[in-house]
Amino acid sequence: MSFLAAENSSNDVTKEDTEEPQEMTLDMELERPKAADCTGTDKETLKSALQAAITAACCSRDRTSQGSHGGEVEYVTKSEMNEVLEVCEGVVREGILSEVGNSFFSLFVDRAVRFGEMDLLPLFLRFVDSFDVMRLELMGFVDVNLDTEAMCERLFDIVVKEWRLNLKYCRGQAYLGSGEVSYKLKAFACKVQEKYPLAICTHSSCYSFNTWWSRSVPVPSVSRALDTLEKIVVFFSSTADLEKQLDQIIAIGLRENYEKVHELQGMFCSSWLEKHDSYDVFAQILEPIADSLERFQCSSPQIWSLAVINQAKKLVQLIRDFDFIVAMVALKNVSSFTKELSAALQKDHFSAASQLCQISGIVATLNRVKTNIKVFHQNWFDEACAFAQSLGVPIKVPDSVTVPRDSLLKPGTYYKDAVSLPLVDHLINSVKDHFSDDHKEALNFLSLVPCSVTVSYTFESLKSKPPLYVSDLPDPDNFFTELSCWKVKWKTKVVSPTIPDTIFQTLRLPLMQYFANINTLLKIMCVLPSTALEYCGEVKHHKMFEDYLRNTCAKDRSPCLAVLQVGTNFNRDLDRMVAQCLKVTPKTLEGICLV
């Protein structure tokens, strides 16, 4: 069964909950009473066996696990086991949706990922649960190769029909893609926002803003450079010994910054997408990385496997390419203009709200850079040439570019037009698009968090006009009175060490029952994709998904197993998994119990 078929099958599970299959063989009908005997088995035994089977199936594709048997179960065929997993995937999805209910939510479509022979877009749902915990859940996937109209139709079908969510409660959209994929996702976003204006388009806090905008750059050289950086990270994170090797590289490249070395060692591979200065770090460790990779093949005695040596050799070739070096240096320098913004958005709610006034200044600065691109590009190009010289890389136009014999096209001129200018252009548009007036107004509500109330000028701005979300407020007529009372409440407690500094802490206060409007606004902030996901004891599921991708080869990945590994909560799902399997795949469940 193909992965796409597996996904479609799982999406139909909810239909099987409500109606019996119409087309069944006589043999299956005759066996149904016998299969029902499985329900007589001790329920705890069924639960234990199914949990063990799901766990084994998830671990079987992990290249870091030892002694895996491919997820095979002795008395169950592979196709039967896949059917059970699909049923369980549907149960996990339904369990998550039951927690969403009719509350506010937002949509997040992550970058395309290779599953077998297919490229799929991961679909995430963000909401706040009944315990006021911010949640970001992996819900499924959509084929990246659908045309624009088909993509829009498929996404609408998934959200509205399969998930049964009402888009009038959607308060945010975040879509990560470049080139044609970006165009398709923007088309969907526009259609949603046309009908539901409060479904604001933003970036996602799963990535630093610098990582976010750079991953959607429609510049081939930059896309290839980012792919190379990804391969470097995957390589060094594949084993503990290789990660230690990267720690040594970081110590060499950042030897003049002990605090930074201490911050990154042991953490860089898992956190670089969330860092606002990752390109700066890569530029500083580029030479040590190249030197280290070259030593892999000439170590004596040979301590690395042939597979590792071959991978290292390929990475050296990618790094010792002037096209990569130019793109890397350009990314480092252009991202410096949004470094402070990116860092503030990650830091805390007060910093994020306070940074909003800087956005118009950032755009003005970038426009000046664009006007004087010749000067800026020359500085960046000189820096790239210095890197190339130290790495022994020839300075030239890419081999893929056809240059007529009589042409005077020089590398500097080529890269100004092919990399530097479009990169600056893209960043200008990204800042404007991702920080629209509505988004900035929405982020102002972060100043409602008590620690910001009396120290943030943005709180005062909330009194100037009716709020963006006035239609969502339970008592809009008393909003301004409520604001004044809220300020008085916290004005005398600024010095208290117990003053809440997170949305979660604020929502859990007993007094929130008297501030219904502020309670609603803070819950909307919980689901806005750009606000930081507060750690409230829950494992960050996007991080789990990134770990899943890092620990599996593309050929071994399964959309079904990805959802199960990331989203399964056995305390919530296991009883329903058993019940649904007894309805849909009773004989297979019986076979699992025989192991």
UniProtKB/TrEMBL annotation:
Residues 1-26 are annotated as: Disordered. InterPro entries: IFN-induced_PKR_regulator. Residues 17-26 have a biased composition (Acidic residues). This is Uncharacterized protein. It comes from Electrophorus electricus.
